[in-house]
Specification:
Chain lengths: ~325, ~260
């Protein structure tokens, strides 16, 4: 465990950064929104005021969506990397997001009157894909690249499935383009609530189980000889990672690279102790998603760049950087 | 050396349908150092994994402290025996943290180390001479230091039985002697040790009894001097053994 003082300082800095990102996100957008107008509307209880409506029906749900999706995907990535012992793994690269996305779209197409089913379907889709990937990893050996390639293949199949769904059910999957890229626009409090509840439960469980993840990182044999029930625990962590990724995908779409970028950055500051790393990933993931979304709104205002595009611009080069590091033997094998 | 701590009766061990060890019967007494030797692929590591509860026996009875091994819950088993496999990973953690992990079987739901847990980990680090390295990352240690760190973790686990799979592999000769002398000191403190060694000289010098395996079967289990005198080692490995008499006993070496 890293010594207390720098860790506390890093957490404090991260928290301040998150607060700044929240303010930036709340007050950035196609329409200018000032504190004064908002306070006036609040003071006069004017729920029909423009500032009030923009804030509570657009900015606030969107900011919450970014916080929940960012933290969920980052923690999901950290869990997947630890359980699969693969530093290159993340929910989007190994096809977990695609699994969640396909099942979310399928449910939205087949049961358009039951929107509450979508987060559940996304979780089941993510979990099923994770198990397939885990099975492939167990059968095809421990090569990190094999796992990523298997993820690419499965993502390809599921993406084709999503494209087919958007063609077959064009009326039921309105906004599919935003979903496929990853975006927080159009998120409502009602739509966010079920997924956010699942994410809160998932984050809490993951953070409470950090120590077990540390022991699991010693390898299956040693963890077992220390009295750990390795297989059920691994299953449990993969289910948690799927719950987090699936819930995030159900309202934010196929956001890429948060689960890859954030755990790597956090490890540099918080080390490999998952009791610190997982809460740090939650804070940093939320901050990154908020900042990217806010920049997407600000860069070409009044036009918006979906957050997924900005994340891919950041994440793609970072993945290449990791591959180069791996080639030089710096990424732990 | 009296009460049997481990009893194996006609044990078959292996992976799925692939039987590696057949009809293996042996008792291991409390307080002894038993070393498993045999040519590559004869089933030493498979047997050790079976003893550790990582592989269920395909048939036969295996009991620990008079109770079938299958009757132990994972944490209860981890408080009774510790297992150091070969080829440990090198996670990016400090030595101290690794040694603390040895206390995992004793931790409650909150996974908080008690003062007693910390004391046990301190003792293990002091015993292995790792206190000066306690804040070093595992990845920055030499092979010998890393092996000692894992041994300290196993010592912190504080079990009456220790299973060590080739603990001296990849170590230079100095570290090999250091590690084996730590094993001897542990044994003097009352621990029962079962280990796999490839170096016959080490096995003959540091064991109370040696179990010789060939093609998955127990050929014999004897005290070192008697085993050497029987010529079984020489026959199985196809080597010539030499015994040098010293004041404190015998030294052994082997030539082609």
């Amino acid at each position: 465990m890293k010594s207390c003082k720098p860790v506390k300082r890093s957490f404090l800095l991260l928290f301040l950064l998150l607060l700044l990102a929240i303010c930036f996100s709340l007050f950035t957008g196609a329409t200018t929104l000032s504190w004064q107008e908002l306070l006036n509307d609040l003071a006069s209880a004017n729920q029909n005021g423009t500032a009030y409506r923009i804030f509570f029906y657009s900015r606030f749900p969107r900011t919450l969506a970014a916080i929940f999706a960012g933290s969920a995907l980052a923690v999901s990535g950290a869990l997947i990397q630890a359980v699969l012992n693969n530093a290159l793994a993340s929910p989007n690269l190994i096809g977990v997001n695609a699994g969640a996305g396909f099942f979310a779209l399928l449910t939205a197409s087949l049961f358009p009157a039951l929107p509450l089913l979508v987060p559940l379907a996304a979780f089941l889709g993510a979990f099923a894909t994770t198990l397939v990937i885990y099975g492939v990893a167990s059968k095809a050996g421990r090569s990190r690249i094999t796992l990523i390639l298997a993820g690419v293949a499965i993502s390809g199949i599921l993406s084709a499935g999503m494209d087919a769904l958007t063609l077959l059910f064009p009326d039921d999957v309105i906004g599919a383009t935003g979903f496929l890229i990853g975006s927080f626009s159009g998120v409502t409090m009602g739509g966010l609530f079920p997924a956010a509840s699942l994410i809160l439960v998932g984050l809490l469980c993951a953070c409470l189980m950090g120590y077990d993840l540390n022991v699991l990182a010693l390898g299956e044999t040693i963890a077992q000889s220390l009295g750990m029930r390795v297989l059920p625990l691994r299953f449990c962590f993969l289910a948690l990672a799927s719950l987090l990724a699936g819930s995030a995908v159900s309202f934010a779409g196929l956001l890429g690279f948060v689960g890859l970028l954030v755990p790597h950055i956090c490890r540099r500051f918080f080390g490999n102790d998952h009791r610190l790393l997982l809460p740090a990933c939650a804070l940093a993931g939320a901050t990154l998603a908020l900042l990217c979304d806010a920049f997407g709104k600000w860069l070409f205002a009044p036009f918006e760049l979906p957050v997924g595009i900005l994340l891919s611009f950041l994440g793609g080069p970072f993945f290449l950087f990791l591959l180069l590091q791996r080639g030089r033997g710096r990424l732990h094998e | 050396m009296s009460d049997p701590l481990v009893a194996l009766s006609h044990v078959e061990a292996g992976y799925g349908k692939n039987t590696v060890v057949s009809d293996f019967s042996l008792t291991i007494s409390q307080g002894e150092i038993l070393t498993l030797v045999g040519p590559n692929g004869c089933g030493k590591s498979t047997l050790l994994k079976t003893l550790a509860g990582h592989l269920p026996p395909l048939s036969g009875q295996l009991s620990l402290q008079g109770k079938p091994l299958s009757g132990y819950a994972p944490k209860e088993l981890a408080k009774t025996l510790s297992f150091l496999p070969q080829g440990q990973p090198t996670p990016d953690i400090e030595v101290e943290q690794l040694v603390y992990h040895g206390r995992f079987p004793y931790l409650g739901f909150q996974r908080r180390l008690s003062a007693y847990d910390r004391q046990k980990a301190e003792e293990a680090m002091a015993f292995t001479g790792l206190l000066p390295l306690r804040h070093r990352l595992l990845s920055s240690l030499s092979g010998g230091e890393k092996q000692k760190a894992y041994l300290a973790m196993v010592i912190a686990q504080d079990t009456p039985l220790l299973l060590l799979d080739e603990p001296t592999t990849y170590l230079d000769i100095g570290h090999q002697f250091e590690l084996l002398s730590l094993v001897q000191t542990l044994n003097a403190a009352g621990k029962t040790i079962v280990m796999v060694l490839h170096d016959l000289s080490h096995a003959l010098t540091y064991s109370h009894r040696i179990a010789l395996l060939q093609q998955g079967r127990l050929l014999c289990c004897q005290e070192p001097a008697a085993l050497f005198a029987s010529g079984a080692l020489q026959q199985v490995f196809g080597v010539t053994g030499h015994q040098v008499c010293r004041q404190q006993g015998y030294d052994y070496y082997f030539t082609p």
